[in-house]
Write a structure and sequence with these properties.
about 170 residues; mainly alpha; 7 helices; VTT domain-containing protein; membrane
């Protein structure tokens, strides 16, 4: 049977292996980590840790670049969520003709931008960035706290995964 006559499922493993090898190259791998980290920091439900861990397992010398690129992508994704929250607040205010306040969010106002340190948390972290924008917390302090929290997450999670899975992967 020729390659083109094969059913798609039969050619998938070689296609996937080629894609994995391509994305593991440092010039593509870091870009992939950035994009995955960026998208995962928006309200889309996905995680970027497998991409970071996979790249580092295939290219251990990229530990710090991968952690920093993932932090940058995830922080910028958080900034997009913040902007979406601010834009939503403005639209709701314009539609209602007055300022909007949600009682459930009053406790968050107590912490201010420092609450963005928790933006690394699963499930609640990404919406937290949007809520910070909704509450009109100052952008730059929020971004700085997001970056700190996300950097610590990537550093700790990647180091822990490398500790538990020290073998080098082979494709």
């Amino acid at each position: 049977m020729t390659e083109s006559a094969r059913p798609p499922a039969a050619s998938m493993p070689s296609w996937f292996q080629h894609l994995a090898q391509l994305l593991a190259l440092p010039e593509y791998g870091l870009t992939t980590v950035f994009v995955v980290a960026f998208v995962s920091a928006t309200l889309l439900p996905m995680g970027s840790e497998p991409a970071v861990f996979g790249l580092i397992k295939l290219n251990p010398e990229l530990f710090w670049p991968a952690v920093l690129v993932a932090t940058a992508g995830n922080t910028l994704g958080g900034a997009v969520s913040w902007a979406m929250g601010l834009g939503t607040h403005r639209l709701v205010d314009r539609a209602r003709g007055n300022s909007t306040e949600l009682r459930a969010l009053h406790w968050l106002e107590r912490f201010g931008p420092k609450a963005c340190l928790l933006s690394w948390l699963p499930v609640v972290g990404d919406p937290l960035c949007a809520v910070a924008g909704w509450l009109r917390f100052p952008f730059w302090p929020c971004l700085a706290y997001m970056a700190i929290g996300k950097f610590v997450r990537y550093l700790c999670m990647t180091a822990a995964l490398l500790w538990f899975f020290p073998e080098r992967l082979a494709l």
